[in-house]
C-alpha cells in the first residue's frame, strides 16, 4: 500500500472532479501502464477503483477523475464531498486489467463520459510510441465534458474526435458506420456507461469484429434481479471442504468470511480480479468481464456475483 497526498482537487466539468496524488514522502511513484487503475481506501470499509488518466511517463503523480454518480454506493459521493486538497490517502499500487494490445497496428479508442479516463493514458502512451490511433470522446453536453481545453494542447490533439450528444447531427458518433468494415490488425477499446458500451459493442459484433479485437472496461455492472436466486454448494478441490451459499449471499462473501483468500476488487463482476477456475459443475454467469466464449466453456467464473446452475460447483481453490 502507498501513502499519497492529494496535492490538487479540481472541478473538471459538471459532476466531475480530478484528484492529483503525489507520494507522501516525496518519492517517485510506481510506474504504470495505460489502462491501469488504483484502489483508493476512502474510509473504513470503503474502497473504490479509479483509472489513472495521466501520462504513464509521469512518475511524480497519479491523476484520477471521479464522476459524482447519483446511484453511487458511497465512493464517488465521499470523494467529492469529503476528500480535500492536503489530505493523505492510502492507495494500492497500479494494476492493469485493461491493457493496450501490443500486437495491434491500429487502435480505436472510445470513451463515453467519465470513461474517457483510461483512454487519456492510452492516448499518451500510443502517442509516445508513434502508433496509429484515433480517440473518440463522447459526452452528453459540453458542460459535462472534462479535459476538453487540456486535450487541445496534447501532442495527440489532431487524433481526437469529439462527439457531443447535444450538438449538431454531423458530429455525433455513428458507430455502425465507423465500424462497418472490420480491419485486420485494428483493435477497439471501449469504456463508459452501460448504454454507450452496449452501443459500441453491439455495433462491432454486428459488423463482424472478432472478440480478440475488442477490449472493454465497465465501470459498474447492470442491475441484476436477485429474486430468483437459489442456494447451492461450493466445494474446494484442495481440501474437500463444502460451503453452503444461501440465496442472499455470494460465493466470495461466504468464502471470505471463512478465511478463504480470493483476490477481489470491484465485487460487481466487471474487473475480472476474482476469476476462479471451475473444475466441476455449471456456473450461472452474471459478470460483464468474461467473453461469450468463456461463458460457454464454463471452466471459469466470478465468485463475486455469479452463481450456479448445478447444485454444486467444485472450485480450483
UniProtKB/TrEMBL annotation:
InterPro entries: 2Fe-2S_ferredoxin-like_sf, 2Fe-2S_ferredoxin-type, 2Fe2S_fd_BS, Beta-grasp_dom_sf, DmmA-like_N, FAD-bd_FR_type, FNR_nucleotide-bd, MRET. Residues 1-101 form the FAD-binding FR-type domain. Its cofactor is FMN. Pfam families: DmmA-like_N (PF22290), Fer2 (PF00111). It comes from the Bacteria. CDD domains: fer2, PDR_like. Keywords: 2Fe-2S, Flavoprotein, FMN, Iron, Iron-sulfur, Metal-binding, Oxidoreductase. One of its GO terms (molecular function) is oxidoreductase activity. Residues 232-317 form the 2Fe-2S ferredoxin-type domain. This is Oxidoreductase. It comes from Pseudomonas arsenicoxydans. The lineage of its organism: Bacteria, Pseudomonadati, Pseudomonadota, Gammaproteobacteria, Pseudomonadales.
Amino acid at each position: 500500500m502507498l501513502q499519497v497526498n492529494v496535492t490538487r482537487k479540481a472541478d473538471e466539468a459538471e459532476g466531475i472532479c480530478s484528484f492529483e496524488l503525489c507520494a507522501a514522502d516525496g518519492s517517485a511513484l510506481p510506474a504504470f501502464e495505460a489502462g491501469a487503475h488504483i484502489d483508493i481506501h476512502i474510509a473504513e470499509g470503503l474502497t473504490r477503483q479509479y483509472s489513472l488518466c495521466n501520462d504513464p511517463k509521469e512518475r511524480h503523480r497519479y491523476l484520477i477523475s471521479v464522476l459524482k454518480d447519483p446511484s453511487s454506493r458511497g465512493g464517488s459521493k465521499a470523494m467529492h464531498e469529503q476528500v480535500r486538497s492536503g489530505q493523505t490517502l492510502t492507495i494500492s499500487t497500479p494494476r492493469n486489467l485493461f491493457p493496450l494490445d501490443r500486437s495491434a497496428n491500429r487502435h480505436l479508442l472510445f470513451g463515453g463520459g467519465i470513461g474517457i479516463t483510461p483512454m487519456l493514458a492510452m492516448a499518451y502512451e500510443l502517442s509516445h510510441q508513434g502508433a496509429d490511433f484515433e480517440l473518440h470522446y463522447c459526452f452528453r453536453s459540453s458542460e459535462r465534458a472534462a479535459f476538453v481545453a487540456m486535450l487541445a494542447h496534447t501532442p495527440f490533439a489532431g487524433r481526437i474526435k469529439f462527439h457531443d450528444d447535444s450538438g449538431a447531427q454531423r458530429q455525433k458518433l455513428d458507430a455502425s458506420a465507423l465500424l462497418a468494415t472490420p480491419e485486420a490488425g485494428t483493435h477497439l477499446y471501449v469504456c463508459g456507461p452501460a448504454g454507450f458500451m452496449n452501443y459500441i459493442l453491439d455495433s462491432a459484433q454486428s459488423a463482424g469484429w472478432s472478440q480478440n479485437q475488442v477490449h472493454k472496461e465497465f465501470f459498474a455492472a447492470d442491475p441484476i434481479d436477485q429474486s430468483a436466486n437459489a442456494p447451492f454448494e461450493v466445494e474446494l478441490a484442495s481440501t474437500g471442504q463444502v460451503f453452503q451459499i444461501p440465496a442472499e449471499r455470494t460465493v466470495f462473501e461466504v468464502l471470505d468470511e471463512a478465511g478463504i483468500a480470493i483476490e477481489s476488487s470491484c465485487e460487481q463482476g466487471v474487473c475480472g480480479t476474482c476469476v476462479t477456475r471451475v473444475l466441476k459443475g455449471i456456473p450461472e454467469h452474471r459478470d460483464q468481464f468474461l467473453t461469450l466464449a468463456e461463458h460457454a466453456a464454463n471452466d471459469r467464473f466470478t465468485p463475486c456475483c455469479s452463481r450456479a446452475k448445478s447444485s454444486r460447483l467444485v472450485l480450483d481453490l
